[in-house]
Amino acid sequence: MGTPRTPKGRARAIATLLAEEYPEAVCELDHRNPFELLAATILSAQCTDARVNMVTPALFARYPDPPSLAGADLPELEEIIRSTGFYQSKAKNLVGMAQALVERFGGEVPTKLEDLVTLAGVGRKTGNVVRSVAFDLPGLPVDTHVLRLSKRLGLTASDDPVKVEAELGALLPRKEWGDFSLRTILHGRRVCDARKPRCTECLLEPLCPSSLVPRKRRTRA
Ligand code: SF4
């Protein structure tokens, strides 16, 4: 493959390689509907998906829908979600989110990002997860992995997730945003580690300006 010269060409080449490597990339938070995904994503802040998945069966058995969560007893809810960390603020956010769904959105999770970000505990990242995963709508969640890899790959110079979302969004087709994010997160977890990127094993290495592979070896590759 020749090296694409434009940012758009590079972004698409990177997206294609990631799609070949991680065709199976899916959101790893267990959920059965948009409400459960929204709650699970709120819980996933500063917590692993695996840990959230241990907590959500009991959470959704006790509070299966927005009205029941809106009326939750805070101490009881805190106890259920305690192991996800920051459980007091997460419990308040869950109840506030559910109350807003009941009061302002007819008990349904809204699909528009501008509505989603008005909910307690929901920023653009969470809103974009819900849009892309639960509704199959364009949404480009920018988490710590997407932020780090986008910069290393020279797709952005910014550290601001909102700017990175806009810049990546302009480089990639809207229908690919969600999958690009999921695959970039997987690549960040498996290969492009924050501290020790494994550049010699990286399929994106020929396209990466931050590669740690010595230049001579790169030109021979
Ligand atoms: S070449 Fe290295 S820095 Fe670049 S994406 Fe791959 S692992 Fe990350």
Number of DSSP E strands: 0
CATH third-level topology of the largest domain: Endonuclease III, domain 1
Percent of sequence in beta strands: under 5%
The multimeric state of the shown protein is single chain
Radius of gyration: 19 Å
* SS content category: mainly alpha
Bound molecules: iron/sulfur cluster
Biggest sheet overview = none
Are there runs of 5+ residues with pLDDT below 50, and where? none
Number of helices: 12
Helix content: 55-70%
Tell me the distance between the termini. Answer: 11 Å
Q: Number of domains in the coordinates?
A: 2
CATH uppermost class of the largest domain: Mainly Alpha
Q: Overall 3D geometry?
A: elongated
- CATH homologous superfamily designation of the largest domain: Hypothetical protein, domain 2
